[in-house]
């Protein structure tokens, strides 16, 4: 099981890299200029193992050949994605709301330059620790890995530990390297922020001496987080049947630069909305990532206006049933291991078709 999960992560990274290379080559050959029918929309997601990367692939799979092409790219769902969006190097970016809130405090003009396309599913906070550590409070003064600087995990972890008044020695490894350090006992804990189930966490052997620490929801966390839980259906390798680990979640949004900045980009985003929004039910179907069932397209983002194309579509479909945005612990229950494997294989087949 562990090898299978890691293989998926590796191949997904290679697939995304291949897709990027193919799009660049097409552009160099003059076959996909921005003003043609075969335009490419740049969509930056998260690391290869992240839920937002699978969501990006799901979105891209909805687009037929010969029309608008979707170029999903690996990112950090954090400050790196925001920077590329602000520099108009991508059309759309997945960004954790904790990162956006932190950036908005530092740059008051951000709400004038960025627009909401849609809110996505909450991203759970996972705190992994050695077996001899029984509570988050015991991490005070110890070395804890938050993730690469500027990433969704790093920014969220820093804000969380500040809210909990916990001072730790921060390291900045990627999740895979940090877990290896945790196994060896050279660091005390690892914080990973991402939609459950995380394949990196799911690949940890049951006998590795690692467990998930509970994060209690309380007054210090009420303003920025949602209460949720992790169960054995998410991580059977770490949580016993009938057990549960309380934690919190932050939000995830899909953002665009202001539609007034680039008419061609605005046109590509409008075509994206016209393709993805009407087929939202397809994204929530069996075989897709379970996080789709936690999304409400109509959810707003306080302080930020909605993209005009998304707003127009929503106004024209106000009678459509909506699903609430909640940190639903049962969202992944109906997705078996076989269905997850089918999901990955479907993505590979979609990529092969688009690379011809």
Describe the structure.
- This protein is of the alpha/beta class.
- It has 2 domains: 2-121 and 251-354, D-Maltodextrin-Binding Protein, domain 2, CATH 3.40.190; 124-250, Periplasmic binding protein-like II (D-Maltodextrin-Binding Protein, domain 2, 3-Layer(aba) Sandwich), CATH 3.40.190.10.
- Helices cover 36% and strands 17% of the residues.
- It has 12 helices and 12 strands.
- It has helices spanning 2-28, 51-60, 79-86, 97-106, 110-113, 152-163, 175-184, 199-202, 263-276, 280-283, 308-315, 337-354; strands at residues 40-44, 69-73, 92-96, 114-119, 123-130, 143-145, 169-171, 189-194, 210-212, 226-230, 245-250, 252-257.
- Strands 5, 6, 7, 8, 9, 10 and 11 form a 7-stranded mixed β-sheet that branches. A 5-stranded mixed β-sheet has the order 2-1-3-12-4, sandwiched between helices.
- Strand 1 (40-44), helix 2 (51-60) and strand 2 form a beta-alpha-beta unit.
- Helix 9 runs parallel beside helix 11.
- The protein is globular and about 55 Å long.
């Amino acid at each position: 099981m562990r090898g299978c999960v890691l293989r998926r992560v590796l191949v997904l990274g290679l697939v995304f890299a291949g897709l990027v290379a193919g799009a660049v080559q097409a552009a160099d050959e003059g076959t996909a200029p921005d003003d043609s029918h075969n335009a490419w929309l740049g969509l930056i997601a998260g690391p290869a193992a992240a839920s937002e990367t699978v969501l990006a692939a799901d979105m891209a799979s909805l687009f037929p050949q010969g029309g608008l092409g979707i170029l999903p790219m690996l990112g950090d769902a954090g400050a790196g994605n925001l920077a590329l969006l602000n520099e108009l190097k991508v059309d759309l970016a997945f960004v954790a709301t904790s990162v956006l809130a932190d950036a908005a405090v530092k740059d008051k003009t951000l709400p004038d330059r960025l627009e909401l396309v849609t809110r996505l599913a909450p991203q759970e906070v996972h705190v992994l620790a050695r077996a001899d550590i029984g509570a988050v409070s015991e991490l005070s003064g110890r070395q804890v890995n938050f993730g690469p600087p500027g990433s969704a995990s790093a920014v969220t972890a820093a804000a969380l530990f500040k809210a909990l008044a916990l001072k730790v020695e921060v390291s900045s490894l990627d999740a895979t390297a940090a877990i290896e350090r945790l196994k060896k006992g050279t660091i005390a804990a690892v914080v990973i922020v991402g939609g459950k189930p995380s394949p990196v966490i799911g690949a940890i052997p049951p006998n590795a001496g690692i467990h998930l620490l509970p994060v209690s929801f309380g007054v210090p966390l009420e303003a920025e987080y949602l209460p949720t839980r992790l169960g054995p259906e998410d991580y059977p390798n770490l949580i016993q049947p009938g057990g549960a680990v309380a934690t919190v979640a932050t939000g995830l949004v899909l953002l665009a630069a202001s539609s007034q900045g680039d008419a061609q980009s605005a046109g590509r985003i409008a075509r994206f909305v016209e393709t993805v929004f009407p087929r939202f039910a397809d994204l929530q179907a069996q075989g897709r990532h379970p996080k789709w069932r936690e999304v409400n397209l109509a959810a707003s983002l306080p302080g930020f206006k909605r993209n005009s194309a998304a707003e127009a579509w929503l106004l024209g479909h106000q009678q459509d049933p909506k699903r609430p945005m909640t940190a639903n612990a049962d969202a992944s229950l109906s997705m078996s291991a076989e269905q997850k494997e089918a999901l990955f294989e479907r993505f590979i087949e979609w990529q092969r078709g688009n690379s011809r």
